[in-house]
Amino acid sequence: MIIPTVPTPDELLDKGFRRAKKSADLMRSQKIPKYLKGKKIEETRVITACNVIKDKLKSIISSVPIINELPEFYQDYIDITVGVDDLKQSLGGLNWAYGILTQLEKEYGAKIRKNPSEKSTSLQKQAYGRISSVVNKIKKDLDFLDFAKQNLKNMPNIDFDAITIVIAGFPNVGKSTLLKQISKANPQVANYPFTTKGIQIGHVERHWRQYQIIDTPGLLDRPILKMNNIELNAILALEHLADSIIFIFDGSETCGYTLKNQFNLYNQIKKIFNEIPIITLFNKMDLIKDKNHINKYSNKIKNKIFISAIEGEGIIEINKKLDQVEKIKRN
Fold first, then answer.
1. How many CB atoms lie within 10 A of CB 29?
2. pLDDT score at 195
3. Where are the domains of the chain?
């Protein structure tokens, strides 16, 4: 969703009144009977100011799709990120202003035409005062829409026809590194938690089918109600998009979280998303000398794969698992 630049009330009024002045100046150069010219100039100022402001409001309103008609993933994404109700309320404020400006345009256009020419200037000033009042009343709506623009500009572009694999796990377990290995994505990778601040997507074609690999922000071992927006985006991707989940353990525990905590999160994911197949990986095996600590947890999981994402070890086995997901979806 790309919301156009959202002006402040002062910027909106300045644009409307400047354009109105230019239109009035052009009107002055026209050959019009003297007794009508003053009326035409001031009527043009009012109509132009209203139309310029209305056009900007309309461009903002039109840029936001009907939220209830969006896929559930996008509805929830918007709600988590900025709040659906707040977004609708702000758009409603702009719609209200649009309607009032339309009324003012008609009302003062008619008044200027009907009244004596010497009253035209005072009526134009009166109209400008009311236009300014309307625009200033939607300041909080314009401010919110500017906030929404900044926070929704990186909303992920989802291919709902592709086979979708969602990578999950604690922060810094190697999700972004794995995404880079198995897709065409080039995510930022760094050695500190919460490197991924939003959903990142990689694409790859396998056997003439499109795969969409989604790297989610790191999840922590805590109830959903206590999760921050970054974690909620991860849950959102799992809930609405995943044909399969890749869950990554950091076997070395260098991510800063114990295998016990990681195993608790793994069990939560399995319980909540029990109908979604899970591919389980133990990553950073190149850093592990004693595997006994890992075996305490890995032995409880069938069909796990031991990998080193940074070294590219285990990628062939992962791709074989992805092929099985395609077969399951096809059937």
1. 7
2. 42
3. 9-152, 163-330
Contact between 265 and 170 under an 8 Å Cβ cutoff? The reply is yes
What 3-state DSSP class applies to 170? Answer: coil
Query: What is the model's pLDDT at position 188?
Result: 45
pLDDT band for 330, please (50, 70, 90 cuts): low
DSSP state of 211: E
**pLDDT score of 257 more than 60:** yes
Tokens of 248: 């990554």
Among positive and negative, which fits the CA dihedral 230, 232, 234, 236? negative
Task: Label the pairing between strands 200-206 and 209-215.
Answer: antiparallel
**Topology given in CATH for the domain delimited by 163-330:** Rossmann fold (3.40.50)
Topology, domain 9-152: Four Helix Bundle (Hemerythrin (Met), subunit A) (1.20.120)
pLDDT at 38: 77
Amino acid 149 reads K
Specify whether the CB–CB gap between 175 and 196 falls below 8 A. Answer: yes
Tell me whether domains 9-152 and 163-330 share a fold.
no
Give the global pTM. Answer: 0.79
- Largest distance between two CA atoms of the chain: 98
